[in-house]
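This part of the workshop introduces the protein records we will be handling. An example says more than a description, so a record of this kind follows.
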Amino acid sequence: MDKKTVIAPNISCGHCVATIEREIAALDGVSSVSADAGSKKVEIQWSAPATWERIAAELEEIGYPAEE
């Protein structure tokens, strides 16, 4: 299982957190996702078939690009 914590500077509220958690959790292979509006951190755990590239692309697509 892989795990990564990134900063998503566009997180500003609870709605942002809910959107990130819902959309990333829906990806096949993602086992957990936790976003925090205060720290703007997103912590994600995944295994195959998910890849970091796919997760990062989804974050960008929904408007919350990750900074590692």
